[in-house]
Structures are given as C-alpha cells and as structure tokens.
Amino acid sequence: MASHAANLWVLLGLGLAGIFLMTKRLKKTIKADFGAFIQKLELLPPPQPAPPKAPHPLTGLNFAVSDVFDIEGYVTGFGHPDWLRTHEPSTRTSPVVLALVEGGATCIGKTVVDELAYSIHGENKHYSTPTNPAAPARIPGGSSSGAAVAVAADFVDFSLGIDTLGGIRVPAAFCGVIGFRPSYGVISNTGIIPVSSSLDTVGLFAKDPSTLRRVGLVLLQLPFSVQRNPKQILLADDCFELLKIPKDGISQVVTNSTEKHFGRQVLKHENLEKYFSSKVPSLKEFYSQKINGDSKISSLTLLANVAQILQRYEFKCTHGEWINSEKPVLDSAISAQINETLDMTDKEIEICKSVRTEMRLAVNNLLKDDGILVIPTTAYPPPKLGSKEIFSDDYQNRSFSLLSIASISGCCQVTLPLGYHDKCPVSVSFIARHGGDRFLLDTVQTVYSSLQEHADTVAKSKLSPNAVKQEHSAEAVKEKGNQAYKDKQWQKAIGFYTEAIKLSDNNATYYSNRAAAYLELGR
C-alpha cells in the first residue's frame, strides 16, 4: 500500500506537469499538488476480514483531511503558523478520521485551510492559496480550500473539512465538486478544532454521488432503510433572485430533472423571505433590537447577520485568550472581524440562539420527511484571485443570506455542480430537514446524472440586456448613497438607496444600507 501511494504521487506529478504552461498567464507558480496539501502522511486501514464476512465498505478509497482534524503525532495547524508553533502534537486521532480508516479507506495527508478556518474565500497568505483546478485564476473558496482542491484535482476520492458558514459548500461550488454539510450534531466534532460550536459541522467532498453516499453512510452510521422519493421539491424563488448569473438556466435544469424522475406534481415554489418572516418571530425581535427606523430589512439578511454574529461571538469565546496573548499576524479582513468590538448584550445573544431554534422548526415543518428545498449555493461565481469583490457588502450579504439557512437551522445540504457559465463553475444546493441526511443522499444519487445531462442549459443562459442595464444603474445610485452616507447626509443617502431599490429590489445590500442610514438619522 505504501508503494502504491508513492507511485500515485509520481504519476500525479507527471500528469500535472503541463499545468505549468498556465503560470505565465496567472503570474503565480502552480504546484504539482495545486497547493492543496500541507502535510503528507499515511494512515492504512486494517486487514480485510476473513470470508464469508464482507470486505470493509470503503476498501480501495483514499482521502485527505483539512488541517483542523487531529491526527496522533501531528500538530493540528488550524491554518496558521503561530498556532502550529504554540501547540503540541495531538495524542489521539479524531474519531471521524479513525472511523473512515477502520472502514477501509487510506488517509494520505492534511490539507490547507483558511487562517483559523474563519473565512469562506480560500486565500491563505501563510501557506499560499490552493489553486482552483476548475478555474485557476479564481479563488477556491474556503475555509476547507485544500480539501476541495484535492478532490477536484483527483488526488483523492474524497476529503473531509469543516463547515461553519459555508466552509464545505463554498469551495465545493467554486471548485466544481460535490459538497455535503450533514445535519448539525449527527457526526462527532471530537478531535476537531472548533470555530463556532453551535454552527460547526464535519463535511465531505466527493467527485461523484456514489462515493458521497458510500462515505456518508459510514460517517452517519445509519441503519439500512428503503429509499424514498421526495413528494415535494421546493424552488426558493427569492433566493434565485440573489444570483449574479442568469437564474433561469439553473432553475430549468432542476425543473427538467425533477419532472423526469418524480413528475411535475412534486415541483413547488416558495418565498423564503416571507416564510421566515412569519415563522421565525425572534428575527423580528433581533431586528427591533438592532434597528430604530421604519425601513424593512429582508429576513434572509437578518438571518445572515445572526449567523455572522454567532460565529464571531463563539469564536472569540473559544480562541480570544490565545489571540490576545499570541497576537498572530492575520489577514486584514479576518483580523477586522475577529477584533471588532462585539456590541451585543446578553439578551441579543439569547435572541440569536432563539432564532436558531425557531429556524430548525420552521425548515423541518416546511420540508417534513419528504421535501427537498432547492437554492443557489452561492450568489456569485468564484471571484478572481486578489479581487476586492469578496469584501464588498453586496458579496457578503448575498453569500451569507444563502449560506445561513442551513447553518442556522442545522439542516443538511448538498452542493451539486452544474457545469460552467462564462468559464466558471456553477452549482445548486439541495436541503433536507434536520436528520434527513440519508433521504438527501438518496435523492442526490437519483437526480445527479440527469442534472449533469442538462447542465449545458446553464452555460447558454444569459441576463437580458434590460436587466443588466438596471443592475448597473442601481449600483451607480448606490455609490451615490454611499458617498452621501460618508458625508453624514443621512436623508440624502436614504433617497439614493430607495432609488436603487426601485431599480433592483432583490439586492439585500440596498435595504441594509438604507436601514443603516435610517438608524443614523434616528440618532
């Protein structure tokens, strides 16, 4: 097995030699392993049981784990050299990793994560950013960037990462692979460095649905059950309005696949903004605590705010002491979030926790045991390396409005690739109720092939000229509002933001900016 692994790396190195031809255009050196790995190692499975016992379920598969999972004898690096320097080697291997090895799979290495596994971008200045095999000039997404890249580049059959607010789903979408965020709490987080204890979930990347399901069933330790077909597939229309690429192509692919496998009668449409507004009353309480004005903020935007506040609050509770004592050099954007004063009362933190409880109930009631919710995974295609776009309010608001649904509710979500649009990977996500993991994996296995068959529909779809013109006009007006806001001309800023909303009423940033201006005006 050891010689097999060594030969694998030689073959991969030879096969990838041609990739260096790209480096002149990209102005960066692409490593033979695409910069995915931070540590090569080998954990071998036990011998096969004697017949007539069945072989181990994961026999023949190899995998990698993000550098947040403990492996005996190695320091868990958490994406930062200062963390590596100040911590001792692990004395035990994470139970999740052990379960996969004992199930017959071979672990071949640890992969790069974002600094302190905190962001969703995939860029790490300390260990260099892993190269996105699907779009080398674009970011790979994070926090589990290296794990996604390892699967996308065919170095491993599957890989493990952690998903707090998109750490599995974003890199899966950006690298064009399948990403699975299981239901919160169904897989042990023991032996894993936490980011946000109430949001963290062990996640999984794979290239195909069969491997995903095969590994997923081992991780979830689920007993055999008869496969069920969904009785309702709900397209979240307002979530598709958040997309920065043409939405019709993606929804058409899902519609065609649904009709082929389950019939047109199961397809339904839902407005999640309205649904959550009525079913998650603590969102209104959160809103009233934070905003003193008569402007309206989307419930999805509020949900995104709650998720980010919870992540920041719990991260600081867990790691604040280490950060204060070691003062690690952090990316400016991550440092700004972590070190920002958290102006939250105990009551407001409790409201955020109430939102989490109500969200799980709301999504479970919406989907029941036989429903699948369909949303875009991300609003934007993967941004270019070094792009400032990832720091814009619009990018953040749209991204976390979609990602916070599963993070806050704790429901399970699978990200599925749908080909390319303008040479960038495109994806869609299926969500099932909390605890509906097997049902979700079965559904993905059923529809995956037909989704891929229709993926060229996405590539051919285009925004209408009028829609493009209106978006550009709205952005121009928003910038005028931003300038007025900087000049403390609150009423003028409100007017500009209102005009932008009239031009493009599905942009969460315009509502949030206007609400902030109202707040200042109220003061």
Map the helices and strands.
Elements: H1 2-15, H2 23-26, E1 37-43, E2 62-66, H3 81-85, H4 95-102, E3 106-111, H5 145-152, E4 158-163, H6 169-175, E5 178-181, E6 201-206, H7 209-220, E7 232-236, H8 237-240, H9 247-261, E8 267-270, H10 272-279, H11 281-290, H12 299-326, H13 332-339, H14 346-367, E9 371-375, H15 393-409, E10 412-421, E11 424-432, H16 437-453, H17 456-460, H18 465-486, H19 490-503, H20 508-522
Parallel strand pairs: 2-3, 2-4, 7-8, 7-9
Antiparallel strand pairs: 1-3, 4-6, 5-6, 5-10, 9-11, 10-11
Helix pairs in contact: 7-16, 9-16, 11-12, 11-14, 12-14, 12-15, 18-19, 19-20
TPR repeats: 474-507
Domain Amidase: 55-212
Protein name: Amidase domain-containing protein
Low-confidence parts, pLDDT < 50 over ≥5 residues? 1-25
Q: CATH superfamily membership of the largest domain, which one?
A: Amidase signature (AS) domain
Q: How many domains, in number, for the residues?
A: 3
Strand content: 5-15%
Q: How far apart are the termini?
A: 68 Å
Query: Helix/strand-derived class?
Result: alpha/beta
Give the strand order, joined by hyphens, for the main sheet.
1-3-2-4-6-5-10-11-9-7-8
The number of helices is 20
Question: What helical percentage do the residues reach?
Answer: 40-55%
The number of strands is 11
Would you write up a description of this structure?
The longest helix has 28 residues. The chain is globular and about 75 Å long. Strands 1-3-2-4-6-5-10-11-9-7-8 form an eleven-stranded mixed beta sheet, sandwiched between helices. It folds into three domains: 193 residues, Amidase signature (AS) enzymes (Alpha-Beta Complex); 219 residues, Amidase signature (AS) domain (Amidase signature (AS) enzymes, Alpha-Beta Complex), CATH 3.90.1300.10; 57 residues, Serine Threonine Protein Phosphatase 5, Tetratricopeptide repeat, CATH 1.25.40. The relative contact order is 0.11. It has 523 residues and is α/β, with parallel strands linked by helices. The chain is built from 20 helices and eleven strands. Helix 7 packs antiparallel against helix 16, helix 12 packs across helix 15 and helix 19 packs antiparallel against helix 20.
